[in-house]
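How a chain folds remains the central question behind the approach discussed here. In the encoding step, the backbone of a single protein was reduced to a row of integers, each denoting a local shape. We regard such an encoding as a compact summary of how the chain folds. The sequence in question and its structure tokens are set out directly beneath this paragraph:

___
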Amino acid sequence: MKLIKSVLLIGIRSLLIIGIFWFSVAADAQEKSLNGKITNVKDVEGIHILNTSSRFNTVTNSQGEFRIRAKPMDTLLVSSIAYIPEQIVITQEIYSMGFISITLKDLVNELDEVQLGPRLSGNLERDIKNIKIIDTINFDDVGIPGFKGKPEEKIVPIVSGIGLVTAMDVEALYKHLSGYYRKLKLQRKWESENVVVARMIHYYTPQFFEEAYSIPEDRLYDFLLFCMETTSIKHNFEAENYSLVLDSFKEQSKEYVIRLKEK
């Protein structure tokens, strides 16, 4: 009888030890909030951190600090327009400390090979004749203000009133009636949206949209235009309100992915 009791006690103790061990392992595997910091000297605000395992995402503050939920063996994708995207695996050591320090590599845009011309023959008189010189006016050089942007055609509004009809008024009226100004407005709107879409793709990278919101790369351009037509994401992105931009991505991607599946 004593032998049986001893065996039972040993068995119970073994089960308790195993239970405590698995409980501690399970506790360690739970998600918790990790604090992090981008240690680069400049351009540390607005860097996006995505947990590709759980889809949690966040943005760094002006000090490069962030907080994100993660567990051991999760992968963080860090992306920014100024740095090379980097993937970081949450080790047990990082999880235990509850803090992660990240240093990113600068993204250097290398220029393509530049060929200078025209080729010089060594004959000074002949080479001077072949060189084309274009004189340009620089407002800063002469000390007067001037417009340096891209000139655009002015859209003349229709103003009702009594007076003489000038040639400019007749031309503007014709452009309104013919739909020319409407097409011009639409063209400028699309050009502006296309520029912002290109900036967004470069800023977030196609990999970010595919892993965070399941948007395939070949549908990314269409998805961003869809966001612009249904939200104020263009204004928020230009104003650097990145948290609102991410909220729009999250909400609109749900409907967009459903539409893709239906098609």
